[in-house]
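Suppose a colleague, Dr. K., hands you the sequence of a protein chain of 474 amino acids and asks what its three-dimensional shape might be. Before reaching for any lab equipment, you can write down a predicted structure in token form. Begin with the sequence itself:
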Amino acid sequence: MLTLSPEIATPLVSQIVDGLRGLIAGQVLKPGSKLPSIRAFAASHNVSVFTVVEAYDRLVAQGWLVSRAHAGFFVKRREEGASSGSGAGRLPPDAPRFDARWYLKQIFENRNLPLKPGCGWLPHDWLFGDAVRRSMRQLSIDGPELDGYGLPYGHMALRMMIAESLAERQIPVEAAQVLLTHGSSQALDLVARCLLKPGDVVLVDDPGYPNLMFMLRFLGVHLVGVPRTPTGYDLTALESLVVAHRPKAFFTQPRLQSPTCSVASVAHLHRLLQLADRHDFVLVENDIYADMDIASRSTLASLDQLRRVVYVGSYSKTISPNLRVGYLLARPDLLTEFVQLKMIAGLTSSDIAERVTFGAITDGRWRKHLKSLRDRLGEAQRQVGRRLDSLGFERFHEPEAGMYLWARHPDLPDSAELSQAGTLEGMMLGPGQLFLVEPRTTGWLRFNVAFCNDERLWRFLEARIEMGQRVEQA
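The predicted structure, expressed as tokens, is then:
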């Protein structure tokens, strides 16, 4: 029935699953036809019974087969028209449909999936694990303070180090202007809850950061998307949106933006500040990928000196996402409001996590780690870009730094459907619908270049492209 190759890297279970799905999609195996028994298949293909059991079980879970007690396994009958050529390669009709909030939850609950090309963090061996372990050992020797809470503003030594590092980015602040938070997510939440009320209009990048959009919608504000371009923003659209909607704030990622990895030019930043001054709204600059940038760039905060800008940073991307240490900067009157809300909502942030982070960034290898990380990401950007090009993908932008590539293929029009199929294969993709202000069918996908070195990803994409082409030709 199939030709299996034990000598290649693809597991035998996956070869059986892929092969049988191809036979079903190509109508070689008709709806309702019976498959060989588990033992018969194992004997004829010289594989173990357990391998066949797992493969058949996967196909049942994916909706390609049905199991009938005391009868065996049969090709599942599709809805009218689904078994014709026009449905080749599509999900089973009873498969769960894509839901952005469900998918986002799955991302964090299934971080142990074998393949994670759509995730938002780095592989463990790309992070600064050795420094974290050294810092934790030193903290255990010094004796962590377990009786009581940390300071409202966070660990003073870390705040001083952040202030020093920001001075190198032309953002001169004192430690008193730095508020430590439970990751950048808490920082953004504090800003939103302090500055906004239900019904307010807020601008966000489109495509943009899904966690932020969910949080803002939960607060009852009205989101308006500002289209991203490879050099920053669609300024014509931005100006029209500002005039039409009179926003209270614009939450944006000028540098190495997720999901596009685009960088806003200095000219765009100046224009954005002019619009904020003229129309009286706050700019919330989410700069959590700054340490991954190979270039020294102006930021909204450096150009504005925190008059209208609230600046958010984080160590979760470059040290460890589990530490959950972020920070925000703002003018003194706003910072006072932010720290009061932080205390009301959850008291202090973790002094132990902040001390571990301080130990990591004062480790003598910190700058070497950042350089190595930037070099690895740059090389991964080039390699993944070439692979996408070879398959016929269109890239939104060709970054030289950062974690992401934003791309689409003409024969893969629905990235949500593709991502659902990937989930069934143990693969976490980044469907474009997740990042849009107004979710709709789109072919765009976010690729995390640090997780795209597994050949199974490329075989999966190539197979889905071939299926899509057959659909078009049918």
